[in-house]
TrEMBL record:
Keywords attached to this entry: ATP-binding, Kinase, Lipid biosynthesis, Lipid metabolism, Magnesium, Metal-binding, Nucleotide-binding, Phospholipid biosynthesis, Phospholipid metabolism, Transferase
GO molecular function, one term: metal ion binding
Pfam family membership, one: YegS_C
Superkingdom in the source lineage: Bacteria
Cofactor(s) for this UniProt protein: Mg(2+)
Keyword Calcium: no
GO cellular component, one term: plasma membrane
Protein name: DAGKc domain-containing protein
Entry keyword Nucleus: no
Transmembrane segments: none
GO BP: any one term: phospholipid biosynthetic process
Length: 314
């Protein structure tokens, strides 16, 4: 096995099939032209990214690159963090975004241009970023999942669930904004309690709640606009129960992060987060719908080596 040989894990259905077109017409020809040493595998079913990454690690690959959306990245990261073959920090992860959500790459300096993204892989520039781990309940069973971007609960998780489901419909994909607006009409704000580093900081009805390592989610929204990927802390944003009119009048501010200045918004930072609720509080991480409360988050500082356009000194 060549030391720098890259294993690309391609999700051909990401972005409604965009990832396959991008791989075939853009990325593959660039790799061949630059004479980069690589292998590639296609995912065929949910969580295949995890299985293929785990197989790659067992075979000795130390550079794993996702071609898809944030969900594909999440599966690869879960393989890296779950295995005990090699120290996770010795494996580099990269991404060439071509799915419906590529928010993570914006925060960690991965070039959006395909030519630049491939060139970046050659340079071997990297950063070390924090990794989160969340415990949750799914079908009555306690489970855990690692994540690298943002976890959403409440309204956020409801919208994500509906958006993911809409991709499978015969009549095309509903826009994120349309799903968001339709969910507003039926959503019931859950009563939640939040403890950060063991101290209770919140108890009330909440519209939405985010626990973030990075800044962007939901296609460019900034629910945790001050998050830093390598500071060893979660950024937590909670929005109290508010009227539909207030939500609509502040939607634009979610895209520049200024909504956190609203009186109904509270922000916190911490290393561990515990969330309980009277009703089931549903969860999504890195754009993937999971289970529900009770939830427990912990952070692992600078445990992921990311092939980035930034440098470790950044």
């Amino acid at each position: 096995m060549e030391e720098n040989k890259i294993l690309f894990i391609v999700n051909p259905v990401a972005g409604g099939g965009k990832a396959l077109k991008v791989w075939t017409k853009n990325i593959y020809p660039i790799l061949e032209n630059k004479k980069i040493s690589f292998d590639y595998l296609f995912t065929q079913k949910p969580y295949d990214g995890f299985n293929l990454a785990m197989e790659g690690i067992k075979k000795g690959y130390k550079k794993l690159v996702s071609v898809g959306g944030d969900g594909t990245v999440n599966e690869i990261v879960n393989a890296i963090m779950s295995q005990d073959i090699i120290d996770p920090i010795e494996i580099s992860v990269g991404s060439i975004g071509s799915g419906s959500g590529n928010d993570w790459g914006k925060s960690v300096g991965i070039p959006a241009n395909y030519e630049e993204a491939v060139s970046n892989l050659q340079k071997d520039n990297f950063i070390l970023q924090d990794v989160g781990k969340v415990g949750y309940i799914q079908k009555g069973v306690e489970k855990t999942r690692y994540f690298v971007n943002v976890a959403g609960m409440g309204f956020d998780a409801e919208v994500t669930y509906k958006a993911n489901k809409s991709k499978k419909r015969l009549f095309g994909k509903l826009s994120y904004s349309l799903i968001l607006l339709s969910t507003l009409l039926s959503f019931k704000d859950p009563y939640i309690e939040i403890k950060i580093d063991g101290e209770k900081v919140y108890e009330n009805q909440a519209l939405t709640l985010n626990v973030g390592i990075c800044r962007y989610s939901g296609g460019g929204m900034m629910f945790t606009p001050k998050a830093k990927y390598d500071d060893g802390l979660f950024d937590i944003t909670v929005v109290d129960k508010i009227s539909v009119a207030t939500i609509l009048s502040n939607l634009r501010k979610i895209y520049d992060g200024s909504f956190i200045n609203h009186e109904a918004v509270e922000t916190f930072r911490g290393k561990s987060v515990e969330i309980t609720s009277k009703e089931k509080l549903y969860l999504e991480v890195d754009g993937e719908s999971l289970g529900h409360s009770p939830l427990y988050f912990e952070i692992f500082p600078q445990r992921l080596k990311v092939l980035s356009g930034l440098s470790i000194e950044h």
